[in-house]
Amino acid sequence: MTLTQKETTLLQDLKAQEQLCIEKYNKYAGLAHDPELKNLFTTLAGNEQKHLDTVNQILNGTEVKMPDQSPSAVQAKLQCKVSCCNEVEKKNDAYLCKDALSMEKHVAGVYNMGVFEFSSPVLRDTLAHIQKEEQNHGEQLYNYLSCNNMYC
């Protein structure tokens, strides 16, 4: 499989974005006070690592095909009460979560651009699949914020 220069550039951007997501989620897992949020950040870091692995495979010339079914949103089992945290800690967790949500919105947009720019139908489907997973990450973050009265 041969990629165009534009496709390669987009993939390199996606690679950098995924690396940043992994780094942020791992850092945020260490900074979060609520164990539920720590767990969410750790889970999302693992998901982003899978995305990075896929992007690297494509950059190495492999036409990666994702499962046929569209990824569905994971129903997070959140407790809508943060009892472990004082107001300062809760405010810190809200900041981390809102920043992560903003990051997911940006990354989903970058994948969306890729969907329109790739010539291979298989790779367009792969990027669309990952984009949907990024949207699901955003939904999980939003649900946490909303559930804990942190979203405004």
Average pLDDT = 91
State the end-to-end distance: 46 Å
Q: How would the global form be characterised? A: elongated
Low-confidence runs = none
Order of helices and strands: HHHH
Per DSSP, the total helix count is 4
Strand content: under 5%
Largest sheet: none
Radius of gyration: 16 Å
Count of DSSP strands: 0
Give me the secondary-structure category: mainly alpha
How helical, in percent, are the residues?
over 70%
Task: Summarize the model shown.
With 152 residues, this protein is mainly alpha-helical.
List keywords for this structure.
single chain, 152 residues, 72% helix, elongated, mainly alpha
Can you describe this structure?
α1 packs antiparallel against α2 (35-59) and α3 packs antiparallel against α4. With 152 residues, the chain is an all-alpha fold. It has four helices and no strands. The longest helix has 31 residues, at 87-117. The relative contact order is 0.18. The model has no long low-confidence stretch (mean pLDDT 91). It is elongated.
Topology (SSEs and partners):
Layout: H1 5-31, H2 35-59, H3 87-117, H4 121-147
Helix pairs in contact: 1-2, 1-3, 2-4, 3-4
